[in-house]
Amino acid sequence: MKLNYQIQGAGAPVILMHGMFGSLSNLGLVGRALIDHYQVISVDLRNHGESPHAMEMDYPSMADDIVELMENLGIPKAHLLGHSMGGKVGMQVALNRPEKVDKLIVADIAPVDYTPDRHGGVLEGLKALAQARPTSRQQANELLAEHVEDSWVRAFLLKNLLRADDGHFDLRLYLEGILANYYDTLTLAPTGTPFNGPTLFIKGADSAYIQDKHRETVMRLFPNAQLKIINNAGHWLHAEKPDTFNRIVTQFLAGNRD
Fold first, then answer.
1. Is 136 a catalytic residue?
2. pTM of the model
3. From the CB of residue 117, how many other CB atoms can be counted at a distance below 10 Å?
4. Same domain membership, residue 198 and residue 74
5. Is 41 left (phi over 0), alpha (psi -120 to 50) or beta?
6. Which of 9, 32, 162, 247 gets the highest tally of CB atoms within 10 A of its CB?
7. For this structure, is 84 an active site residue?
8. Do 99 and 25 have their domain in common?
């Protein structure tokens, strides 16, 4: 699958992969912090943004999308940085195709199975938007507020609105493909052969996605892993504490150069 992407900067390539319901703009702050020293490739993962739609949506196929993009761009090896779902995609690439990965950065997700109830309200809200096809962003926000209390999360989700020719708003997301896989394949852990390359997990202190009980699994699959914790940050740590997040990322990439 040929993913939509944007390239900025020059140098060693770094591929940025967003989380569920996001797009390539979500990691824009860290991308801008890297472009002076790296070639930054921001991608829309399948069924998100302007990338193609598919009913098949699991981590092996999404990892294959990244490898295909690298091959199409003539990139033999790259640093990978992924947030949440994008972090699982990055881990899957590293576990299956380690020769393609230089350094791996995983933001607030672990290589474990998760219960499928974390986004229940979000999914119901997005389904309501898709069915109602609102005519204004205010109307869309009000519809979404019936299912999603957090105004910051609503603002994030509303970035997926796209005005159609008839004046109504549709979703850029391929919601049908996401819903078909969300409750099974998308909650699963990435699997494969342990990746021995430099790996950094970054956790938001207020987030429960990475827990002490995950350490054994993390170290088994990523024996050269380290963990950094950002205080006063939750799951959206790259947006909540961008200066701290960007500093951790740039120091990790620079400190482990050959």
1. no
2. 0.95
3. 10
4. yes
5. beta
6. 9
7. yes
8. yes
